[in-house]
Structures are given as structure tokens and as C-alpha cells.
Amino acid sequence: MDGFGANFSYDVGDDGSSKGARFKRGLFTFLKYAVLVIACLIVFVPLIVVFLGSLKNNTEFLSSNVFALPTAFEWSNYKTAFIDGKVLLGLKNTAIIILISCTGTIITGTMTAYVLQRFKTLFGKVLKAAFLLATLFPAISMQVTVYRIMNGFHLVGTMAAPIILYVGTDIISIYIFMQFLDNISTSLDESAIMDGANYFTVYFRIILPLLKPAIATVLIIKVIGIYNDFYTPQLYMPSDELSVVSTSLYRFMGPYGAKWEIIFAGIVICIIPTLVIFISLQKQIYAGLVNGSVKE
Amino acid sequence: MAKKLSMSNGIEQNNKLGRSYWNKMLTVFLFLLIPTVLLVIFTYIPAANMIGYSFEERDQFGVNVTFVGLKNYKTVFTTPEYFAAFKNSLYYLAGSFIQLALALFLATILCSKIRFSNFFKGVLFFPYMINTVAVALIFRRFFQKGDGVTNTDGTLNSIIALFGGEPIKFLSTEGLVNICLVFVSIWRYIGFDLVMFIGAIQSVSPDIYEAAELDGANRFQVFKYIIAPSIRPIILLQMILAVKGAISVYEIPFIITGGRIGSSTFVIQTTETAFKFQKVGLASAMAVVLFLIIVVVTIIQKLVFKEEK
After folding, report:
1. Which of A48, A237, B49, B80 has its CA 20 to 30 A from that of B102?
2. Helix, strand, coil % over all residues of chain B, rounded to 5
């Protein structure tokens, strides 16, 4: 799928035999690159300013032009952001929440999809409809009343609140799994049942391994979603000790409101893991998002 | 399979079927238990509460509750503030369509014969991966106008100064602030559309393009007759998601401006009403209104896609 641009193009037209045609073609190619370079600059410029600013000390930050290179690297900004700004803690808490939520989603999601897709029971049909209807509820606005229930279970102020919401209200994942199971022939699991395997064995030995590609898709969507979520942790984990990446960065605006160099250092710290993951898993991420969205 | 069945006698088979029925039911029960319980407790009970509360006046603790009928709904539709928030979603809606058009344009360029296409795609997509709060903070600074004491001009005003222009108060000028926020939203989300479009364009078999080339089709014809039809469903889907997205905007304006200077959105107002002003009844009514809008849009989506098929 990738590398399409390199070996094939829909770019058809003349052979460039006449001078005018060749000029036209050249101009067209130039314009294409110009558009792409400008678009990339629009992406880069705000980010480069952040990186440059994160290395300046406060006086220099206030006196120099935003594009000026720092005269001396002020690494202490990073130290401040990392330790006082609790970004390190935020990364740790985010990692814990992602790990538990993803495990939970994959287990419950694949089990639900297996039962709903393979056993045609009345209850299954009702539940399927209930899941479908639930996708329509506006997630953030719903918290107006979910909060009260979370509070009733004494879960506000614990990591369990966002974890439960990430696992329990993730309907898209179930749909991705079901869609995937639709395309897997039932003959394999049916023959296993005939050979005396029970449903648990079928699930663990046959269904789960077959769902691997779908699990990858769900993981990608899920990790990006949780890492970027700001509202849920902000509402349910207001204490400093339970900072995640989003909320620890948001809290920078208080004490460091005027100290952009420290905020910038915090931003760089939280972009680096994303960049590493993105560069190493680029193809899987694109594929995951494309596969995931088609199921909407 | 058939051999096996014929070999076992009637009673054994009966037992087997009975056992397998109970096995099946046990599996269904165990596998669906947790998701069902979570779905009921954290989606359906809150949804039912939301509808109930929307006819009441109550705070977050539910201590003082009075039934007020349709008063909350009346407030939502008659208070100018709330209406202004709906108006703001039009900015985002217009922005989403610009975003779709731009993404489509860039996607067709990237799918033509181009060097480093993967690099360009990666750069344009990357903002989608960046943490929302980080994006919002980056642009809070990007649009800043310095006060000369604690802050200097941000990136955009520095660029303007480079060309000899006067700095502009981007984030504290009504109207302009919404355009800036929409820009941030496009900056962040365009990569997603881009990846979708590229995926759709590349799903067309290369043979078709080759055949078109042999038949002497020009660029425009290839776009009109081959690319456009193949990505039509994706465009329609993205357009509908754009409508849902535009009325549910929350994070970017909340962090950059806090909803000030006429940049509030309906969801910002809903959460503030509920958690800052403790008017849970009114906030529930707002959530119900949002839900109903989403339902209507979804019904339109289903109808459109039915026609497509």
C-alpha cells in the first residue's frame, strides 16, 4: 500500500515532447512541491518556536526574537518541568492508565464481540442495539450525570474512574472486533467445538489469535485517544498526585503562566514519546486509523 | 463431522446437545456480564438521569430538587449566551469543510508522482498525534500579543513585525478569536482526513489508472472519473463527522481562551453550568439538546448512506 507514490502515479498527460508542454509540466511539478513545502512549514513553525524557546533562560526569552537561536542552552527548564511540573509523574500515571484500560478493553471487547457475533441470542441482539444507541450520547456532556454516579461509588479522585470510563464506554472497539469477526469463517471454531473444545478454549485458542490485526487497530486508536484526553482526568482526578500528561501540562498555566520557556520544555517532553512512537509505528498507525474509521 | 454424529447414539447426542446448550448460555452470561453492567451503570443510568434531571432544578449533590417542567429547555433556547455558542459552532463547521477540501487537495498531490511523499504525509499528519493540551498551549503562545513587561509577542506577531506590520490582538478580538481557534483545529486534525483520503485513493487498483493513462485521460478527468467516485463515501462520512465535531468542540477553545471573548462553545457552557455554577438541571437539558441534534444528524447520515448504496 505504501510507496504507491514512488512506483505509480495517476499523473498522466503528454510526453513532454514540445517545449511549451515541458515547461507547463515543470511548472506544475514545482507548484506541487511548493504547496507541500508551505503546508509543512505551517506545521513546523509553531513547533520549532517551542523547541527554541525551551532552551532559553527567562531574560533571553523576553528579550530575543522568537526565531532567534538560544545563546546558551538552558537545560534547567527541562529539569523544572520534569520534576516541579510533575511531567514525569504525568507520564507514569498516563502509562498505568493506558496499560490497564487497553488490557481491559481488549479482553472485554473481544469477548463481547465473540459472543455477539457468533451466538445469535435474543439478549445479544438487544445488547448490540444498546451499544449502537450508546454511540450517540455526547461523551463530554454525559459527564454531567456520570459524575454523580462515580461519586456515589467513591471513585472520584481515583484512577479507577477514567479507567472504567475508557473500558466500559468504548463501543467503537467492540464494533471493530465484530466487523473483523464477520470476515472470519465460522468453520474453524465450529469444528473445534465438534472436537469437544469448550467455548473458553475456542475463544482463547482460536478467536483471540485471529483477532490480532483488529487488536492492533484498537490499541492504536485507544492509546492516541487516552493520551490526548484532557476532560476525563481533569474532572475525575483533580489532585496533583494523579496528574496525567494532559493535566500536568494544563496546570503549568498556573505557577508558570508567564514562564513560557518552562511550559515549552514541558511540551517538548510530552511530544518526544509521541514522536518516537510515531516514527517507529507510522505504517501501523495509518492503517489502524483508516481501518477504524471505516467502521463508524 | 457427519461421521461422528452418526456414530453416537441418540441419548448421547441428546446429552451432548443439552450440555452444549448450557455451556453456551454460561459463556454468553460470563462474557457479557462485565460489559453489560458497565454499559448500564455508566451509560444508560446516567442517560436516564439526564432526561429526568432536565425537568428539575438541582445541584450536583441533589439536595434541593424542584420540578420545573420545561423551564430549563426554555432557558437554553432563549438565553442569548447559549445561542451565541451555537453560532460559534458555525465557525467550526465552516472550518471543517475548508479542512476537508484542503486535505483532499493535499492527498491528490501526495498520491501523484512525488518524491518524499511519505515524509510530507508524516509531517502533515503528526499534529494529530500531539497531546491536545500541548497543541492548545503552543497556539496560546503562537497568537499572543506581548504586553512589553511579562510577555513578548508570540510567533505570529513576530512574523508580522518582520514584515513591518503592527501586532494584532488575535485572542482578544471578538470574531477574530474564533477564526484563530478554528485554524488551530484545522492544524491539528487535517492530517487525519489526509490519511483517510490517501487510503481511499490508494485502494483503487493501479490498473485502472494505467488504463486511463492508455486511453489518454488528463489529470482532471482522472480526478473526476476515478478518484472522486472512489473517495465519495469517505468524504460523505467525514462531512457528517464534521457536523458532529463542530457542535461538540471543547478542548481547544477551553484551554486557549477559556471560552472568553465570545469564543465559548456549547459543550464548554454545558460543563460550566454543571460543575462551576452547579446547575445540574439546566446542564442536563443542554446535554439532552446536544444529544437530540446528534440523533438528527445520525439519521440524516443513515439516509444518505442508504441512498449511496
Report:
1. A48
2. 75, 0, 25
Cα angle A37-A39-A42, degrees, rounded to a multiple of 5: 110
The amino acid at B86: F
d(CA B134, CA A263): 9
Q: How far is Cα B127 from Cα A279, in angstroms, rounded to an integer? A: 13
Contact list in A for residue B158 (CB cut-off 8 A) is: 65-67
Residue partners of A114: CB distance under 8 A and separation at least 6: A177, A181, A203, A207, B31
Tens of pLDDT, residues B164-223? 878 888 888 888 899 999 999 999 999 999 998 898 888 887 788 788 878 888 878 888
Contact A65, B158 (CB under 8 A): yes
Contact A9, B202 (CB under 8 A): no
**Distance between CA atoms of residues B231 and B104, nearest Å:** 9
* Candidates B20, B22, B39, B42, partner chain A, best to mutate (most A CBs within 10 A): B42
Distances (CA, A) of A190 to A193, A197, B104: 5, 9, 45
In this prediction the pTM is 0.85
Burial class of residue A106 (count of CB atoms within 10 Å of its CB; 0-12, 13-18, 19+): buried
Name which of A10, A45, A269 to mutate to probe chain B: the one with the most chain B Cβ atoms within 10 A of its Cβ. A10
Is the pLDDT at A3 greater than 60, yes or no?
no
The answer to whether B282 and B267 are in contact (CB under 8 A) is: no
Q: Which pLDDT does position A29 carry in this prediction?
A: 86
Give the contacts of B124 (CB within 8 A, at least 6 positions apart).
Answer: A39, A40, A43, B106, B190, B191, B194
Strand positions, DSSP E, chain B:
56-57, 66-67
Rounded CA gap, B241 and A14, in Å? 40
pLDDT in tens, B110-164: 988 888 889 999 999 999 999 999 999 999 888 888 776 667 778 888 888 888 8
